Please model this.
Amino acid sequence: MLQASEETLLSVDSGKQHPSPFVKWAGGKASLLPDLLRHVPSHLSNYYEPFLGGGALFFAICARNTDFNAHLSDINNELMNTYGVVKSKPDELIQLLSKFEHEYYRSKRMSNYFYEKRAWRPSNSIESAARLIFLNKTCYNGLYRVNSRGEFNVPFGRYKKPRILNAENIRAVSRALRDTNAELCSADYRTSLSICGKDDFVYLDPPYQPQSKTSSFTDYTPGGFSERDQHELAQEFEKLVDRGCTVLLSNSETPLTSRLYKGFEVRSVTVNRPINSVGSGRTGYRELVVLGNPE
Ligand SMILES: C[S@@+](CC[C@H](N)C(=O)[O-])C[C@H]1O[C@@H](n2cnc3c(N)ncnc32)[C@H](O)[C@@H]1O
Model:
């Protein structure tokens, strides 16, 4: 397999801004990227990422080249709507986000403006996308958490001067999504992967198997991601390899995840996790990177 290096990322056309995640997402992969990228072949045909979140690996691959077809999905409906709007209506989104940013910085109490937007129910996809990005940039730690009714309930973040709109990046992301003919869909990972076959490349970054009860960040959706889900995902991993896909997976290193992927090429990597429930949990976290290559 061809090796990707960090330099590859820097050697592409410097005239254009490289796309990068436009939302901060729990489990974002920034510090693990070099370890993941070295397993991604330089020549891809179909790339599948069904636990998309902020899409850190997808954007890092796009900085190398966009000569492949992307199939991107996540169970989070609001998030996938936002990707759709970034892809097809970047200018309208930028205009509305710019208005939100302006109003936010002119408001007497920024926290009031935040809670107004949190309570607001948008009436179209562009409003919904702008609301998601605005809340993501101004809420506590950029978390996405919903209550049992599916309502976003993360409190105000108290950042001094958050950057709400990065228009250049939204345009770069929009270009990357269009250049890779990105198919965007809100679905359970099993549905998204049902059509994968020989020579497809799949990256799986599921909600973490918690290392302890307090370090759990599996509440991306009302249902969370249980231990049973981790077992089923490992079975899906094996089936994909049997079908001829190359599969890359990252997860926290726990006794369960080490056991589930024992038969595959597994590396244990130390990373700084960007979002954790306790400040002290931000350094020296161990993750597993698992590679499944078809015979
Ligand atoms: C660890 S995060 C992915 C982070 C991402 N790699 C990044 O760079 O930001 C896991 C994602 O899986 C999604 N998810 C949870 N359960 C899912 C399911 N059953 N099917 C598809 N996506 C799911 C969550 O909404 C969340 O965005």
